[in-house]
Amino acid sequence: MTSSPLPRILRGRGEPQYPTFLELFFDLVYIFMLSRLSVGLAEDLTVRGAAQTAVLLMAAWWVWVLTAWLTDLFNPRLSIIQATVLAVMFGTLLMAIAVPRAFGDYGWLLVGAYFGIHLVRDAVLIPGTRVNRTVQARSIRVFFWFGVTAVPWVAGVFVHGTARLLLWSVAVVVDLGSARIGWPTPKLGRTELASQIFTGSHLSERHREIFLIALGELILSAGMGLAGSGFQAGRVAASAVGFASAVVLFQLYFHRVRQFLAPPAVKVVERVRPGTSTSYSHLVMVAGVLVVSTSVSLVADRPFGAAPAAWVAAIVGGPVLFLLGSLLFDAVLTGRVLWPRALGIVVLCAIAPAMALLPPLAVLIVANLVLLLILVWETLPAHARPARVTVATG
Predict the structure, then answer these.
(1) What are the angstrom distances between the C-alpha of 374 and each of 227, 319, 345, 352?
(2) Residue 198: in which H helix or E strand, if any?
């Protein structure tokens, strides 16, 4: 720890750790972002389309993560921090506008908004922490790595097709991966992975909120499907199953995860390694909800008839991604494996080939039944087990 004074821009010791209303307001733009990603995936449900959606989701997620860390480390009640968050919010809105045509004519808008966000952020944080070299070095490291990934991001704007996808895939993987290794930077070294830099309860609340936003987008898809159904039986049923999907995913998430996210069960500070791992595991869960939302939209449009292989992959793949993310999250905090969820992944993957024989609505129902069985399996024995959970220290 350094003896240098803490800059006023940082959160003070003993300040409330709950998210502010501004942070909740910021999350609203992600309803639009996730909706645009879901629509884009539904329009191009191919391997290439899925890869493109994954790249765009990771870029959007990285903006959200850095903003969550921004309001975790820095005082969100300062006007300069509030203005920064609003600027990031507007930049995210521009990114969302670009999403459907990011791999077409709007690549420049996506990259321009993405880097504009980070330039604004670092222009505030680097000067604002100059009285404390240790704190300032963290922002400089992040800025350095955005300079590194600027090359493939910008280069991707000037090429098309597979070349753009490859360049942006490398860029976004490096963006997320550099945090995982502590942003090693010439002369400054890297942020130690064992250092305690996050406020556990605040960051946990932020993860809970973004997952709820993802569920909100799923409910939006179910509602839109019902609104455009003309109250035809198949479409109404698909929308109802979509709403049920949101309920089951909500219960699965909070049945297990709330035991870790409740403030009394969370450490006061989070170290770099588990802090980043928690963010990445939530990315996988949110991706799962996004794919579920896409599949609900598709099935609502055509509940009967033959189920294309790509549809089956989406309908089954969404729950698989969610279960995988929850497994990773639990492993980070406890070092254990949730065997019912691991078995659920195996079952879903095993029955997927046979699902092509069923109409899309039936496939959606079967996938939800597997999730429901996992929830019942985990809930019934829980009454006989002690409620206390021991969280690993990382």
Answers:
(1) 31, 11, 10, 17
(2) strand 196-199
The closest of 273, 296, 275 to 365, measured between CA atoms, is: 296
In terms of Cα–Cα distance, which of 288, 278, 306, 193 is closest to 250?
Answer: 288
Report whether pLDDT(202) > 80. no
Give the count of beta carbons closer than 10 Å to the beta carbon of residue 209. Answer: 17
Higher pLDDT, 267 or 291: 291
> Whole-angstrom Cα distance, residue 113 to residue 210?
21
**All residues at 6 or more sequence positions from 227 whose CB lies less than 8 Å from its CB, including other chains:** none
Distance of CA 135 to the CA centre of its chain: 26
The span from the CA of 316 to the CA of 345, in Å, is 9
Are 324 and 345 spatial neighbours (Cβ–Cβ below 8 Å)?
Answer: yes
SS3 9: coil
Confidence of residue 122 (pLDDT cuts 50, 70, 90): confident
Residues in a beta bridge with 74: 10
Which residue in 234, 216, 103 sits closest to 161, CA to CA? 103
Backbone angles phi, psi at 199, to 5 degrees: -85, 110
Distance CA(83)–CA(86), nearest Å, equals 5
Phi, psi of 307 (to 5 degrees): -95, 115
**C-alpha 305, offset from chain centre:** 33
Closest CA to 32 of 217, 211, 287: 217
CA 43 to centroid of chain Cα atoms: 21
Over residues 161-173, the mean pLDDT reads 94
Q: What is the pLDDT of residues 221-275, one digit of tens each?
A: 888 877 766 677 888 888 899 999 999 999 998 877 666 544 444 444 445 555 6
In terms of C-beta distances under 8 Å and separation of at least 24 residues, what long-range contacts does 153-161 make, across chains too? 153/111, 153/114, 153/115, 154/111, 156/107, 156/111, 157/107, 157/108, 157/111, 160/103
Q: Tell me, what's the pLDDT at 2?
A: 43
For residue 192, the model assigns a pLDDT of 64
| Token couple for 369 | 């039944």
DSSP 391: P
Model confidence pLDDT, tens digit, residues 42-101: 988 899 999 999 999 999 999 998 898 888 778 778 888 889 999 999 999 999 999 989
Paired with 269 in beta bridges are 199
